[in-house]
Amino acid sequence: MWRLVLPVCLLISPGLTSTLRPAAPAAHDRPASAREQPRVGQQDRGRDATAHAAHERLAAASAARQRYGVAIVRVGLMPKDTSQEYEITFWNSIKDSQYASDYEAYLKAYPNGRFAPLAQARLTRLRAEASKPAAASAASAAPATPALHPASSPAAAAPAPAPAPAPQAKTPPAPEAPPSTPPAAQTKAAPASAPPAAATAAAAAAAAVAAKGNPAIAKPGPHDIQDCPSCPVLVAVTPGNFTMGIDTDDASERPAHRVTISHSYALAKYAVTVAQWNACVAAGACPRLSNENNASPNAPVRDVSWDDAQQYVKWLSKVSGKPYRLPTEAEWEYAARAGTETRYWWGNDMRKGTANCKDCGPPWHVEAPDDVGSFPANAFGFYDMAGGVWEWVSDCWHNSYKNAPTDGHSWDEPNCQTRVIRGGSWRDGAGYMLAATRFKYDSSVRYEANGFRVARDMK
C-alpha cells in the first residue's frame, strides 16, 4: 500500500485551485532559498520559493489525480535545501522538454518520484514519435522486408539510460542521459576498398578542415603554453588575491571571502574542444561521446561527467609529461574575474555580445554552444568563462563558503559524489553569467550542457 508521510503543512484535497505566477524555465535552476533575493537590474535567475511551492502543488496534484484520484496540496514554503526541493527543481527544468533522455534521467534519479507517472507517459510518447521516422526510413530503404530494423523500435530509438545519480539532494536539474560508449576498437573502420594511403589523406584533410579558423588548436601566441601538439593552449596565471563569492545572491555563494593564491598555475585558454577530446578517444583513453551533442570539432566538448574529465586529464598528463588536472574552484573564479570585483568580468551590467547565453546577444543558437573563442576574452586572456558550457572544477560541493579554504586549494571530502560546476551555459539566461555563479552536479552523470577546461601547476 502506498504510504505518504505528510508534514503538518500538507493537506489532501479532491482538487486544486491555486493560481500560479508564470516563470521561465532554466536549464540549471536553483533551490528556492537561492533565489529569494533577485539580482538588481538583471533578469532573475529563476523562481522564488513561492513559485516553487505553487508548481509543486500543480504537478503533484496532477500526478496524484492520475494515480489515486486525489490532489496533494502543499501549504506554506518548502524547507530550504531539501531533497524534495531538488526534485521539484529537476522536474521544472525538464517538464516542457522534447527530449526523451531528460525524462529517462528523471526516472533514474526519482523512480518513485511524485512526477514519475507523468514522466513515464511523456517518455512513452517521445519514444513512439522517435520510432516513426526510423520506421519510415527503413520501409523506404527496404520495402520488401516486412520486419522492422531493430533501430526503428522504440527501445532502440531511445538513448541509453543515464547512470543513477547519488542521493536525491545531490541531483541538479535535467542531466542528459549518456550515450553508449564503445571502446576505440569498436569505432567504424574505413571501407575495405579504400587503401591505407587514401584513408590517411582523408584523415589529414578532415584535420585541416577542423583546424581552419579554430583558435583552440591554432599556433600559440608568444605568451601561451602548449605542452604537446594535442594539448590545449594554456595561459599562465600569476599569484594574487581576490574576493570570492558574493553576499547579495545565492546562499551557496556566501559568504564572500578573501582568497590568496600564492602558487602559479596555468589554465586552458579555452574549454576543451570536441577535436581535443577525440584525440583522447582515438588513443583509447577516453569514451566516445554522443555525436548529436559533439558534432562540431571546434565547439566545446560537452555531455561529459566529472569522471570523464578525470580520464582526459590522466591521458593528457601521460602524453605531455606534465601534471594536468581540473582547476580548483578558487583558481577558476580568480581567472574568470581577471582582476575585477564586479558582478560580471566586464562590469556590473550585462553587455550584449560578451557571453554565449540565450539573453546575451549574437552569435547565439538554441541548438548548441558556439565554437570556442567566438566571444571576447577577459583581461587575463581567457575565453568563454561565462556561458558556452558549464565547467567542472575539482572541488566537492558545499552548500556555502563557510569554512572554505582561503589559499586557493581544492576543497574536497572523502568519497565525494557531488562536484562543482561553474560559469553557466548557452542554455541559461544572463543571470547565470556572473563571475560568482556556481552549481553542483553528480560526478558520474553526463549532461549536455556540461564541459570543462584543464589546468596544471607551474613548477
What's the short story on this structure?
The protein is of the alpha+beta class.
3D structure, described in words:
The protein is an alpha+beta fold. The chain has helices at 49-68, 83-94, 100-109, 116-141, 154-157, 196-211, 274-282, 306-320, 329-337, and strands at 10-13, 71-74, 224-225, 234-237, 240-244, 257-261, 265-268, 324-325, 390-396, 418-422, 438-442, 450-452, 455-457. The protein has a 5-stranded antiparallel β-sheet. The longest helix has 26 residues, at 116-141. Residues 1-81 and 141-213 have low confidence and may be disordered.
What's the structural blueprint in terms of helices and strands?
Layout: E1 10-13, H1 49-68, E2 71-74, H2 83-94, H3 100-109, H4 116-141, H5 154-157, H6 196-211, E3 224-225, E4 234-237, E5 240-244, E6 257-261, E7 265-268, H7 274-282, H8 306-320, E8 324-325, H9 329-337, E9 390-396, E10 418-422, E11 438-442, E12 450-452, E13 455-457
Parallel strand pairs: 9-12
Antiparallel strand pairs: 1-2, 3-4, 4-7, 5-6, 7-13, 8-13, 9-10, 10-11
Helix pairs in contact: 3-4
InterPro entries: CTDL_fold (IPR016187), Sulfatase_Mod_Factor_Kinase (IPR051043), SUMF_dom (IPR005532), SUMF_sf (IPR042095)
Region (Disordered): 22-51, 140-195
Biased composition (Basic and acidic residues): 27-51
